[in-house]
Amino acid sequence: MSRIDAVWENCGPGIDAFMVCSRQNRYYLSAFTGSAGCLLIDGAHRFLITDSRYTEQARAEATLFEVVESRRVWDKAAELARSQGWKRIGFEAEHVTVHDYLRLLAQYRDLEWVPLTGIVERERRIKDDVERAHLQRAAQIADRALSGVLDHLHPGVSEREFQLALDHAMEEEGAEGVSFPTIVASGPRGSLPHAKPTERRFEDDDWVTIDFGAVYQGYHSDETVTIPLTNRARSGKLQIIYDIVLQAQKAGIKALRAGVFASQVDEIVRDVIIEAGFGEYFGHGTGHGVGLDVHEDPLLGPNPPNDVKLDEGMVVTIEPGIYLPQVGGVRLEDMLLVTAEGSTRLSAWNKE
Questions:
Q1: Contact criterion met (CB below 8 Å) for 56 and 50
Q2: CA-CA distances (angstroms) from residue 118 to 92, 126, 169, 232, 296?
Q3: Most buried by CB count within 10 Å: which residue of 5, 125, 276, 283?
Q4: pTM score of the predicted model
Q5: Tens digits of residue pLDDT in 14-26
Q6: Nearest one of 2, 89, 83 to 42, comparing CA atoms
Q7: How far does the signal peptide extend, from start to end residue (predicted)?
Q8: What is the mean pLDDT of each run of 10 residues along the chain (352 residues)?
Q9: Crossing angle, helix 159-172 and helix 129-148, to 10 degrees?
Q10: For residue 304, what pLDDT is reported?
């Protein structure tokens, strides 16, 4: 079954057509890389509505779609719906603002606009062979880049200087860009899970947390390492914390396989940290899916609203952390492909 057919099936009975406007979902279904436009599909029709800046590009990329030029996407969608005899139009509830939704209700009263949730995202959870190859390549680019800038990781270099060097190295290795603003947190700033790099300069006894990723063919990598700058750093409390976090991550990776619920993996990881006495310092989920978005379904956390049974072909992270205010923190993160027997690691940085 094609991606488009699977998404249409997810819409269920009673929906005459489905509108897709989010950039990642639009690309996933059509291969169109432009920044403006919407898809409108049913069981037999495939329209891509975009403006004059992108029509030539859309026809070259989205070969399975009929490209319709318009600056007023919603007006054109309503016009197409009427011409096809559609009455109930589903749309991505997560990607349409309340303002736009109210406008739809007021302006197109002859049509019924139906908010639908997770229709495309559900299909994106399982990566095909091409997607897996792109994710593997993105992870390789990031790992090679980090290896290439280790000579910048020494006392006297600032967080910001290291971040710029790493970002540049990822692009030199072939990245289209970075997956997200690179996180570099040194010394006591390591207790900030999403720290913004500053002009703080590395010191002898620092541990440095680096959360980084590369984009390749639209697919993201995501990895975190925490590195001691010197042997002096290894003699402090954070070495104990590092060992606990590493043990928790190993437990999570061991538990990861098709058929296990995402929340079960989180519980196994979290129990290691709780039993070590640091449960209150691990406040985020154990992991998440990775793909066209750096954070996507499934979410590996405690009692998620929509717990997911893991399946072969999902790519997820395992990223436990412990964060001690005024002391520092440790987070270790790897990307893994879920298999029937366990998992295959896509990020290759040795965390032992």
A1: no
A2: 8, 14, 35, 49, 11
A3: 125
A4: 0.94
A5: 999 999 999 999 9
A6: 89
A7: none
A8: 94 96 97 96 96 97 97 93 96 93 89 96 98 99 98 97 99 98 98 98 97 98 97 89 99 98 97 98 98 97 85 99 98 99 96 90
A9: 130
A10: 66
Q: Is the dihedral of CA 233, 235, 237, 239 positive or negative?
A: positive
CB under 8 Å to 35, separation ≥6 — which residues? 23, 54
Token reading at 183? 């996180």
Integer Cα distance of 203 and 126 in angstroms: 43
Name the residue type at position 321: G
Six-digit token string for 76: 């054109």
Token digits of residue 271: 């129990």
Domains, the chain? 3-124 (3.40.350.10), 129-345 (3.90.230.10)
Spatial CA neighbour of 327 closest among 256, 252, 243, 239:
239
Q: Tokens in use for 290?
A: 């990775």
d(CA 348, CA 350): 6
Pairing of strands 183-186, 177-178: unpaired
Residues 36/53, Cβ–Cβ less than 8 Å: yes
* The two three-digit tokens of residue 112, written as one number: 């019924």
What's the start-to-end Cα distance of the chain, in Å?
Answer: 42
Cite the DSSP H helix spans in the chain: 3-11, 23-30, 55-61, 73-84, 98-107, 121-124, 129-148, 159-172, 231-234, 237-255, 262-275
